[in-house]
Each structure stands twice: as structure tokens, then as C-alpha cells.
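Hello again,

I reread your note about wanting to compare the complex against the isolated chains. To keep things tidy I'm splitting this into two emails, and this first one only covers the full assembly. Below are the input lines as submitted, including protein chains and any nucleic acid or small-molecule components. They are followed by the predicted structure of everything together. The single-chain runs will come separately.
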Amino acid sequence: MSIVAVGSLAYDSIKTPFGERDRILGGSLTHFSNAAAFLSKPKLVGVVGEDFGPGEWDFLKRKSSAVDAVKVLNGEKSFFWKGYYTKDFDTAVTEVTELNAFAKFTPAVPDNYRAGDYILFLANIDPSMQLEVAKQCRNSKLIVLDTMNYWIKNTPASLDEAMKHVDGVIINEGEAELLSGGEKNMIRAAEKLFLPNFKILILKKGSHGVMIFGRDFLVTLPAFPVREVVDPTGAGDSFAGAFVSYIDSNGLYDFDRDGIKRAAAYATVVASFSVQGFGVEGIDNISPRDVDQRMKEFQSVASF
Amino acid sequence: MSIVAVGSLAYDSIKTPFGERDRILGGSLTHFSNAAAFLSKPKLVGVVGEDFGPGEWDFLKRKSSAVDAVKVLNGEKSFFWKGYYTKDFDTAVTEVTELNAFAKFTPAVPDNYRAGDYILFLANIDPSMQLEVAKQCRNSKLIVLDTMNYWIKNTPASLDEAMKHVDGVIINEGEAELLSGGEKNMIRAAEKLFLPNFKILILKKGSHGVMIFGRDFLVTLPAFPVREVVDPTGAGDSFAGAFVSYIDSNGLYDFDRDGIKRAAAYATVVASFSVQGFGVEGIDNISPRDVDQRMKEFQSVASF
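Full-complex prediction:
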């Protein structure tokens, strides 16, 4: 089995109460792959500029099983984001967004990516692109889509259309509220969001954990408590990467409750490492053994 | 074993997005006893006015094992609170607070309450009164204290003194932040709040669950997801009542992690019923069998 993932590759300049970093590797596809790689290295679809360095390429190659569809656009720079977090890490304030190469992104999934059974992950990009890729991947086993407030507000029709072509959606609480027309109770928000072809809705609640809605079940888990949050950038993408890789490597394509619960616990643990370092460091610096150990710890604090 | 509980008895007029009720039975001691009664009916210490009706007395007698120390003040009315909740239930807005009899409360714990092993629960009242009662109950097995923002802001010295005499404190996230001098990370807030004689700190997070800090362990659980929240009044007191009754009836005076985790799961379930009806109804209308059934459901959605 395998994963095909489409998303952004970027340079991030980040300032948090813990410190700051200039032009470190970021982007939804980067964080997704970083977390997925322990169990299932994805095949990547993305775009970068000529400034994308050898260290960055090395990283992507380590975390993926194919980079054939990561295009370099001549004369362009890579996507750049600059921002900071307030003291409580509740809000990320964007100072600079330069789409650069990403503005000209026309994702194309190569034939060799689409051989055999695979899950398609559509990270947070323009929903019209997500739809385009979903159509290219009609033979995929499952499609999971991530999105954000920007698209919900600005391109609702196109997002709605994309969501009709996927099996699972992963969003956060605020996005669920917005998408459901102001529903603050997550159970009722989920009921409103379920479309006929939907199988699963993953609601990330940041430091408050995650709720997952299946057709006939519900899973709710707290976050793994972290004492020192260094940088929350990419925590949601890391959760998605770990979650999808667990589904893929355990063949949980039917989304049964117990399997989903284990996948959610695993993803909670992996995502908890991501906030403990800047950019990809939190996860890149740990071993599968660290993950196993924290899984046991998570069980002891949260399973009863 | 038994529980001695001190707190407020009140009439509440409550308006929520779901409806409204005028002068229904409320108060921290009421909600605490309502939830504790399934496992361990507490002995009550409180004060009411002459207007306290026969229906209210019947309720207190059903939910307690002694009301000898609930005093009726002649010529006084009972504590009265009027308020409403905004659409998202995030904030309770107080319209009227009439302390009435409660302003003249001088709690006295009778000798017969203090026979044998017992846990003393100090519901949210003036910390100088809590300290006074704690001193009257030096022979108690354990003392657990609840408090709120009002006392943290207005009588910090007296609260600090009261907290030095207790084994456990139960507060919510916002109160922990305030009490720790602005610490938003709950692990660090807990570290700051731990006093030498403290054994346990219970941090309620409302719809986001609960975190419990012991000397050498941590427990974190999500809330039980409720689709129809009718009235959140008393949910925190209900959690406390169910939690303390579980500790008492299972003899968990040593606060071991597994016992605390089970107590927290049990209290989460009982508190989830409390928000499904106005005032005491949510819990008063259910049977131990309903609690057992929801415990199994909670396990299936949140234990992994």
C-alpha cells in the first residue's frame, strides 16, 4: 500500500515565545511527510523554486518514496511564509505570504504514483486544485482532504465540490464551525457536514485533542500534554501524516472504530513531538522507539 | 466512610439558549450532593432562608445522609442567583446576586459528622470560611477545596492560607491561569500551584475535559460528548461530587494513578448528564444503570 500526497513546500520564518528561526523548511506537504515517514513514506506532488536547497531536497527524499512530481519552476522562488505566535500560542499572526512558485502550481500525478492501492492525501491548497487531483486519482482507495478558513470563506462552492469527491475531511474546530454555518457544538457541526459519500470527519482541537466522526461512531481523545511548546507550526499536518500513515500501514480502509481510535492515539503522540521543536525538528530528531515509549505514556495518562 | 460537604444552597433563575427556569434549586452544595449521592450521600453543612420550601428539603434529604447542619435563618431569604448563558455556553452572565442568608453563614460542623473516617469537601465559598471549617475537621481523612476567580482576585492571602490546609484543589483552567500568575500551559500552572502538602490538583476544562495532577502522575481525559447542552450550571460541582464520592466509596485515599483515572472517568460521565437538564434535573432523572451504560459508551469512544 502507499500514500500519494499533494501540498505545499515552503520556507518559513517563525517567531515564537521560545525563539525564532529564519527560512526553515516548512509547508503542509513537508510536515505531512515528516510525520508519515515512520510508517509509510508518501509519494510527493508539489512545487518549489530555484532557491530550494540541497539540504531541503535531502530531507524530502528521506521522508518520501518518490519526489518525481515535485517540480522546480525556473526563475521562481519557493513559497515563503513569515509569522509569529502570541504568548499563548493560540493565534498565528501572518506577516508575509509570498506564494511565488506555488501561485503557478498545476499538480499532476504521474502514472507510476497511481499503480496499486494507495491513499490520496490532499493537503491544504486551493480546492479547485484538490478537485483536479482527486479526478486524476479516481483509482485511489481513499481520498482525505485538509482545508482552511481562507478557502471556506473565499471559495465555498469550489470547496463544496471538492468535498463531494473525498472519503475523509480533516479540519479544526474553528473551521468546522465556519463550514457548518456557525455551529459551536461539534457533534451538531459534524452532522451538518456529513455528505453522502463521506466516511470520516477528523476534527482537530489543538491542545484540546481530537474528535473523529465516523458513519456510526465517535472517537474523542485529549492531546498528549506537552510542557514546553516551542513551535506549533505544522502540528495539524503532522497529525494528518501520522494518521493517514497508520491507516495505510494497517490497512484500515474500512474505518472501523477501534482502528480509528488507535490511529488517532498514534497521530496524537506523533503530533505532540512536532510542537517540541522548530519546523520539522521536533519529529525529525526522534526515533520509532521514542514514539513507542510515548504511546505507552499516553495510554497510562489517558486510557482507562 | 463518608463525606462532609460545606457549600451554598440557592435559588437560581437561569436562561439558556434552550429555555428558562425561575427560582429552581441550585448552589454548589446542591449540585455536589446530587452527583455524589449515587455512591456516597454526604453530610451537609449550609444555610438557607425561611423561603426554603418543602420540595427543596425533600431533595436535600434524598441526596444526603444528614442535614442537621443546614441552618434556617429567621427573617432571611435564601441565596438567589439570576443569570443567562450566551449562545455557545462559554460565558455565564450574572444579572442578580442576592447573598441573603448566605451573607450571615458561619459554618459549624457538628460532632456527629466528624465521627469515623471522612472526606471534607469545601465547595466554593469565602476561603476564610473554608479555612475555619478545615480547622474544625482536623481529624478528616482528606480535604478537597473548590474556589473561583472572585476569591483568587479579592482575597488571595486568605485563599492561600486555606489552600495550605487541604490535600486537593479543584479549579478550572481559567482559575489555574489566574492563580499561577498568568500561566497558560496547564502543566506549568500545576507546577507553580503545588504546595508542600498538596496531593492532587484537579483542573476542569469544561467541554474540553479534565486534567488531574498528582505528585508523580498526570491524568488527562476528554469530556463525554453531549449533543444537546441544556444548562451547564453546576456541571463543575457535579464533577466534584461524583469524583469525591468515587474516591470515598472505593477508599482511594492514597490517590494512586489508576484509581484517580477511574474516578475522573466516572465523574466525567456523571457531569455529562448534569448539562442535559436544567438545574438538578439532568442527574436527578437518571438511574445508576444509566451511569453504567454511559461509562461503557465513554470507554468505547475515549479509551484505547
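For quick reference: The first helix of chain B runs from residue 28 to 36.

B.
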